[in-house]
Amino acid sequence: MIATTCRACGTELEDPAARYCSWCGADVPSDEPEEISPESEHTHRQHAADPLRYATLGAFVLGALAVGALTVVTVSALTRTDVNQPTSAPTTTVTSAVTESTHASETINPAVTQTITIPFPRLGGVGRYHQDGVVAMFGIAGDHCGTREGMIGASGTIRNESPAGQTFDYIIEVDLIRVWTRARIGHLEATVTGLAPGASADWSVEIPSTRVSAIDCEVTDVTLTPID
Hints:
alpha+beta, 4-stranded antiparallel beta sheet, 8 strands
């Protein structure tokens, strides 16, 4: 619609198409729509979209900050130690030593009541041997094996280490074996009687020999007989 009067002073316009009032000089607005260039329209739309974009970005930043704060609070809650909460005392295991009774030795090392034989005892030092439910302890050693003054044989010592304090008779059996052929020359026995606990005695076995021979001496058995 075309204006016929000046909106500023109310004077009737002589030329309805005039852009200025001839009386007061005010602009006469045109009712025709203003042409907008594509560049201006793009700029306008971009500016109109800016608030939404900024609002979206702000919401994202605020959300990230909130998640970070929640994570910090959660980790702090998991790692926080309440100083007022009572802590359990450390557990200490105490192992008490078992005191043996005065008669424990009689149970652990019962007395030998009958003759027993220990096969192939260990030479040198004290041996502890379990036989038929009892324990025998003695030490046996060899100090000679070979030919001497027309005799061939072996000798050594034996010591009574009875844990029950018993006295024994001992029979020591020895094989004389040729070194090269492993043939047995003889099987000999040495006897030691009435050997008290803690005491030692010598033993020896020998047979006549007309020639010098290289031999091995092997203690095959020791037999113990209690006499008290």
